[in-house]
Amino acid sequence: MNTKLLFVMLITLIVGACSPSVPSNPADRFAGTWSGTMSMTDDPTVSAVAIVTIPTGCSVNQPCGDATNTSNGCKWEMTLVSVNDDVFEYSYSKSLEGDCEALGTGTLTLNPDGTLFREHKFPDFTITGTLTRR
Fold it and tell me: Which pTM value belongs to this model?
């Protein structure tokens, strides 16, 4: 009888050790500092370097990093809206630097090559561009 109990306990221990661990925070795949040139969709001749910083441990509906436009000195706080597969959706929650309102929402899409495609929709225009990890 003790042999059967010991065998069952051993199998339970082995199966438990082989079980996948609790999945990490899906937003953590986007963590880091990213930069790249953004262009306006309605006027591709206008461009600016953007820097996006995302910390680890972000939660939905909470502040999660910031975005900076180096050409005008504006910096905004980002709030995580959702993470669905390879898409990180955010909104600007407040201005941190410069004279720019916190307007619009955007997405960061993780590309197979490890870059991010960024699209941010302001009320009057949209900016897009590819960001690389710094």
Answer: 0.81
